[in-house]
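seq:
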Amino acid sequence: MKFSSAFKVGLLTLIAIVLLIGVVFKVKGRTFSAADRKEVVFKDVNGMRPGAGVQMMGLRVGQVEEITPFVDGENSFVKVKFVITEPGIEIPEASMLSIQQSGLIGELFLEITPPRTRTVYIPMATKDILYKDDAVQMKLDKKFVNVGTIKNIEVVSKDVIPFTVKDTIKTNYAYKIDYVVNLPGLILPEFLKGSVAKENGQNILRISTLDDVVLPYPVQDSPYTIIEPMRIADFMDWQYRAAESLTETNKKINDLLSDQVIAELKTSVTNINALTGQTSITMVKLNDLLDTSKGDIRQLMVMMDKATTDFNMLSYNINNLLGDPHFKKTLYTSAESFDKLAENINKILGNEEESKAMAEDFRAITHNVNEISGYVNSLTKDEQLKKDINRTVASVNTAMSDISTTLDTVNKLTPENKTELQTIIEDTKVTTCNLRKFSEKLNKRFLLFRLMF
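struct:
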């Protein structure tokens, strides 16, 4: 079948028009893709133009169609519309969109970075166990919100934990938890720490900054995280501000380190050196003094050891004396007998002053006898002598009991018979007083003998 020349010319013209339209759209940044157009907002696009490529992980997946600036007072922004031309490409939620440059002087393009997997380490001291797909929370503003999910959990040794977080792990093993943040607009620092918490009966992973700084909750309508580009001018401005701060710091340091301050520092160093020299001389003299006094110190230590030994022996003897149950029983019996005797004498005499004097004599006699027995008991190891002393004290107690019994009988006599006994009691009083004096002298002699030996 043959075509006429007019038909051929018309067909070529139609093809040329289609090609022209395609070139025009291509130049303006438009494509014929049926994929959905997406819009994001930047504060600055740093010179990127329509038709720029859209890359994901280094691969070109689309292009920028429109870039429209909006100026509304202080709220100025740039709306960027782009399209994904590659089939089957989906942009994950919370992906980071940034404007990058290929090489130093290459063209600008829109880079899409899917949410990366982060890792946190938790000690195995807790019994709370996390699982895959559990929620990840973080405190933003004033409350905890879900910011991601757990992707994987492993148990690792402390040796493979990074050095930056090894100090926070006190156990030999730890949980290595991989998670992904899917909250759009949330920009986190590189290093975070984690802990296990419970909410509604379910374990969750809570993350926070190393210094527990609370981050603000991101407020935006876009499902992606926008990373604003940095212009060279902004970079130089920050460098200029850093230089200003450094200059101001140097000025303050120079003001602090004035000539007067430096002179005072030099004087202080000189004084410290002199003091150090004097201290060294003093230490040398102290060492010499210790070397020359070693004999005296040893002698003093020997005397202290001997005094300690004597004191221990004295404590041992006192403990033996006080710990003797027979001696305690005898002493208690003597006290009871003496109290009963004093009561009976009180009834017979009727004179409070005389009763007190006689009672005091009896108490002194008993005390002296007990001390004498204690001295003898501590000075000798003869068990037979101890038994004799205890027997003597027991005899005295028996005698006092007999006297008390006798006085009970005397109390029942008639007044005439009591008058006859009064003379006998007065003689007994004199005898008791003399006996007290004799016991005191004997007690003093035993004390002197004990101190001598």
